## 1
Amino acid sequence: MTRTPLMAGNWKSNLNHQEAVVLVQKLAWTLSDKKHDYAKSEVVVIPPFTDLRSVQTLIDGDKLPIGYGAQDVSSHDGGAYTGEISAAMLAKLGCSYVVVGHSERREYHQESDQLVNEKAGKALAAGMTPIVCVGEGLEVRQAGEHVAYTLGQLDGSLAGFSAEQVAGLVIAYEPVWAIGTGEVATPEDAQEVCAAIRGRLAETWGADVADQTRILYGGSVKASNVAAIMAKPDVDGALVGGASLVAEEFAGIVRFYD
Ligand code: PEP
């Protein structure tokens, strides 16, 4: 099975709705200038909630072949949950992806695997693709327990999902020590854990599901290091933070095969 590489840019808490439009326009122009073949890598932007409507209007209006999604979703369907954004609201805005369980949510908002599981379930039920983030911190890595730890998060985050549901989501392996630090994991580090994740998907949901599910690497990916990481057989794309805020740099990541 051929898995189309996915390059997703997580803007985090950066760029207002006007800046968002400028960045998506620049990205689209840069990729069009380079005659990017979207069959070679799918391109997705993940702006803050407040930018989504403007990004939707631009992408729909100009028929840009760029997908978009949200950085989080409520575990509730709606109602008296001040500040929460439901999956139905995001789906209505045309989001096709939702990041769940990013390490910054896990760390600063104490999100547990169970909550991540509920959020991923809501995204799936609304017809969106969750990008489920897992990955170890520095102490776990130094103790050599990174594979077991990450698989534990994976098990908890996907608990109770059917084979069909798992085949419809994306996993992002993001070692916390490599996020925003400039310290990228080696291609071998990325491959080791991505292969272990695929192995666990095969054990739990079968080889076909494991073969279909895309597994991304995230952590200080740049245009200059992406090709070596993408050369690894179990890495199907990248979740990109800082480098996705600069159109030329993100376009370089998208075109990892150049
Ligand atoms: C991220 O936030 O998911 C991420 C990988 O960030 P960065 O690329 O900046 O390390």
## 2
Amino acid sequence: MNQLLTGKNILVMGVANDRSIAWAIAQSLAAQGAKLVFTFENERVEERVRKLAETIPGSTLFPCNVTVDEEIDKLAETLKLELGVLHGFVHSIAFAKTEELDGLFVDTSRDGFALAHDISAYSLVAVAKRVYPLMTEGGSIMTMTYLGAERAMKNYNVMGVAKAALEASVRYLAADLGQYGVRVNGISAGPIRTLAAKGIKDFNSILRQVEEKAPLRRTTETAEVGDTAMFLMSHLSRGITGEVIYVDGGYNIVGI
Ligand code: NAD
């Protein structure tokens, strides 16, 4: 099984450093011959993402802060000019204020609620809206979610509510875009130590619980998520849309 993605142009949003889930996804996609376009959030991460992107021959890099419509418009225009056709879009972006990821959900502020939903859920819709017209040969869109969308998990708080909105968005987008040959899915990953995870209080105890309770008795590796994302971007998954696939060592099936 190799070169499943030769000739495919795929947009990867959400690389911040070499621990990012989006980076592991990029490696799995590149290994199958995909041409990758990366974006970075701001100048603070630009240099780091540029260095990583340079290790993948043929890839390109553009700025895009997903809270700014003009930046997404510009990205879509650039993709049209540079590539013409897009085959895939990987969305691996989330944000919530640190103070919202601690204590009680009931204390969530109006601002914090709006910001978490804007960046972590609406951004999928905002980008999909602008890139699906470029998927003229059919396409695959995927996003990253977490079990906190379905269960009230300690300290995940407003991010869980935003992930629920994200998962519902996956279903609505899938229903809309199927007629254009565009599939939309999510991967629900087990906890992985990344920059985003640093914001979640007591993350170590969450990892320990997974090691103890997950059927596979270990935590999730980014490469496992990367390979599932590759499957979702490839024709191997051509019959699947509107789904959330768990890559969590089976943790979600276990009664606590
Ligand atoms: P990460 O910090 O490496 O990635 C988060 C990315 O979001 C960063 O690249 C950051 O630049 C980007 N981002 C935030 N605000 C942005 C904005 N306004 N515009 C553009 N980009 C912005 O952490 P990660 O763990 O790789 O997270 C990737 C995705 O995976 C997130 O959706 C996260 O919720 C999800 N996820 C993570 C875990 C985990 O345990 N790490 C588990 C399940 C799901």
